[in-house]
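## retry 2 of 3
previous attempt timed out at serialization; input unchanged, resubmitting
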Amino acid sequence: MFDATDAKIMSNDTLTIREMCDAFAVTPRTLRFYEAKELLFPIREGQKRLFTRRDRARLKLILRGKRFGFSLEEIRQLLDLYYVGDSQETQLSRTLDIAHDRLRDMERQRAELDEAIDELRNQMELVGEMLTTRNETTAAQ
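## retry succeeded, writing output
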């Protein structure tokens, strides 16, 4: 649920690392990692990092991309395409291409997982039948 704290955080021009962690349910280490990978560009004031609205938008896209299984390099390329100057047409087109590829991979993985689940169920059934047969043989003796 969106509350007053969320509204304050999202309306602020900058957020501290703690506020970013709370807002996006990530760790400081995660934010520093994305900064080191040049995916986020917080303002530095000594040791303090201040994340801009742009950083928040980028982090939201990074987390969504990771959830869908995009590599960090794919995410970086997509974020960089925002600045091509064609009203995001290139970025959106490339995002769709990568999403199609990722969806095909996920569907293939799901099919493989479904097959493995079926095989495991069959093996469990076979072992169960073997145990039943042994128990019946032992009881009959």
